[in-house]
Structure formats: C-alpha cells, structure tokens
UniProtKB/TrEMBL annotation:
It comes from Dioscorea zingiberensis. The keyword Nucleotide-binding applies. Coiled coil: none annotated. This is 5'-nucleotidase. One of its GO terms (cellular component) is cytoplasm.
Length: 356
C-alpha cells in the first residue's frame, strides 16, 4: 500500500504480468537506475522498474509499474540524453499527478474540489456537478469527443457558480489552509533537480491557477524559477471578489501547448517578483519532452509542440482493473497505487546524465 491507499493491484495487472512475463533485466540498469534505494522491484509488461523509497512512516513501499515497450523507451531515453538538457522540457498535469490521489486512506482534494466559497448553497451546487460529471470523466467507455463536450459543459457551469456565488481571494487562501491536498513524496526533489539544471516545467492544469499557486506557497513555502502554471486564471475586482476568468476555458481534455494561446495573454510569475522570465517561444524549441499525467487526455498536453522525442509517464490512480491495459498502451511507463515521484526523479536523472 502506498501513501495511504488501501488497495492492491489485481485483475488486469495480474493479467499483464502473465501475458508479458519475460524478464527485461537489461532495463534494470539503464531505464530508471540501480541505486541502493532502488533495490525492490515489480515486473510487469516486459519490464523491471526498481523503486524502493521509504514512506513517511518508514515502511518500505512496493511500487508497481508497467512498461509496455521497454526497447522503445530505451531508444527515447538515449536520444534525449544525446541531445542534452538544453533540448528538454517537462510538461505535467497538477491534480492527481503532482499531488497525491489518496491521503491517509481518504481521497485527496483537487484544486477545484478544495475550494470553499463561504457560501454553502453554491458549494453544494458545485458538489452536485462533481457527483454527476466526475463518473463521466473517468469512464473508460465514453468516446473522447463526447467526453470533451461534457467537460466543457462541466467547467463552464462550475466557473459560473464561482462568480455568481461571490468568491473572494481570501476564501481561496482559507480553503488551501484547510484543504486535504499534498504533493507526492519526492516532488520537491524533482522540482529542485529540474531547477538546478535549467529544465523548464510547464504545469498544464484544468484546475485554477490562483489556487495552484496558493498551494505552492502554503505547502512548499517557496517558488521555483523554472516552473510556469498554465491554467484557468481568475480576475478579481478591487475588493478581491471574483468577476470572471482570463482567456478561454481549459478543461481536462483540451489542455495542451495550444493552451499557451488559449489562456490569458500574460501569466504572472509564480509569486516571485525576481522570478524566471518565462519565454514560451524558447520553450517551443525544446523538442524533447517528458510528459507526466494521470488521465488519457493529458497526453494531448504536448499536441501544440513539434517534439522529436516524448516520454509519457502515467499515474493510474483508480479504475485499475478497467483502465490498466488502456494506460499501458498509451503511456511509456505507468505507475500504480498512487506511487511516489521517486521513480520519475530517477528517470529524469538518467535523462540528464551524460551519454554513455
């Protein structure tokens, strides 16, 4: 069990283990590293990903991961290493990707879900929308084109309720203070590693930029000069009350590098007046991409970029039995059971190492 998730992998995971059971020992050395802390491993999909960080309580975590095509992944890694860090960027989703899905056995809140307007009537209305639309969002049977229309509908209604209900920025701050939200273990290590090497990290989120940035301030108490949030950004009046949103709506199925144009023309720096002057034009010249997401729709985050190599890492947080095969085919690597970010830290370390 990982990060409080009271579940185990059965069904499809076991099926994949049987169907793709031959050992891929070569990947043990080259894919994710072989540090002493990485001695434990699970085999799935012709792969061995050795990850064995310690949980907050000190118990060894047995992280399960799936690689559908290890040979392809190795080729991509080699190409990215050869090109160097100057050609690399990381594109990541926020909710359920950078943040934990389960916290002490309880479903963690999203940047939308943690918000309390201070108006119980409108909080209840937004909760009713979640209860209706979220099962549609995670359904493995609804076509993407149909889902996109449903998500546009959901986000539009939710944003309308936030304005109508008189949301204030003070309510946002108070909501984050009381929120059940936390970054995955190893997240700060990843942020610092990328910052030290000058690798930009674009956080594409269908949530709310103002809340995401407040989570950074309150949970991490610092900023990172290489991180940029591209999300739905609010407009407040002089009294700190929400009056609208900048740009077009970014939802879970349309967030991609085109969202740089869809979102507000100017995004403020992440709370740091001396922060990194993010040049989106130069980001588009970084044609090697590490993509992190927890939703099939997250794969579209790089659609607006003419990339040469892309490694897509997926976090499958629920519906394991129904969705594992889909995720295995869509992502280069899939982490299960609300895994920590340590495997990604090791992967990035490999990508930023000198070519062998």
């Amino acid at each position: 069990m990982i990060l409080g998730a009271q579940r185990s992998i059965v069904g499809s995971s076991a099926l994949i283990s049987r169907r793709y059971s031959r050992s891929f020992e070569h990947s043990r050395k080259h894919l994710i590293g072989t540090s002493p802390s990485s001695s434990r491993a699970r085999f799935h999909g012709n792969s061995c990903i050795p990850i064995g960080p310690m949980s907050a309580k000190g118990a060894s975590m047995d992280v399960e991961a799936v690689i559908g095509d290890p040979e392809s992944l190795e080729k991509k890694m080699a190409a990215i290493r050869t090109a160097g860090t100057g050609k690399l960027q990381v594109i990541a989703d926020f909710d359920g990707t950078l943040t934990r899905y389960w916290i002490d056995g309880v479903r963690g809140q999203s940047s939308h879900g943690l918000l309390r307007q201070g108006n119980p009537e409108f909080d209840a209305k937004r909760k009713a929308l979640y209860d209706y639309y979220h099962p549609l969002e995670i359904s493995p049977t609804i076509p993407i084109s149909e889902k996109a229309k449903l998500m546009e509908e959901w986000w539009g209604k939710t944003h309308g309720l936030l304005v109508e209900g008189g949301l204030t920025y003070q309510a946002i701050k108070a909501s984050v203070v009381n929120a059940n939200i936390a970054f995955r273990d190893g997240m700060v290590e990843l942020f610092e590693f990328l910052e030290e090497r000058g690798v930009p990290l674009l956080i594409f989120s269908a949530g709310l930029a103002d809340i995401i940035e407040e989570v950074f301030r309150q949970r991490l108490h610092r900023t990172f000069k290489n991180i940029k949030v591209v999300s739905n950004r609010m407009v407040f009046d002089d009294n700190g009350q929400l009056v609208g949103f900048k740009g077009k709506t970014i939802h879970v199925l349309n967030k991609n590098e085109h969202a740089l144009d869809m979102a507000a023309p100017v995004h403020e720096k992440l709370g740091d007046p001396n922060g990194f002057n993010y040049d989106f034009a130069s980001v588009k010249t970084r044609t090697n991409v590490l993509l992190l997401g927890d939703h099939i729709g997250d794969l579209g985050m790089s659609d607006g970029l003419s990339y040469e190599n892309r490694i897509a890492v997926g976090f499958l947080n629920e519906n394991n039995d129904k969705s594992l095969e889909i995720y295995r085919e869509a992502f280069d690597a899939v982490y299960l059971n609300d895994a920590s970010m340590q495997g990604v830290v090791q992967l990035v370390s490999q990508l930023c190492s000198s070519p062998q």
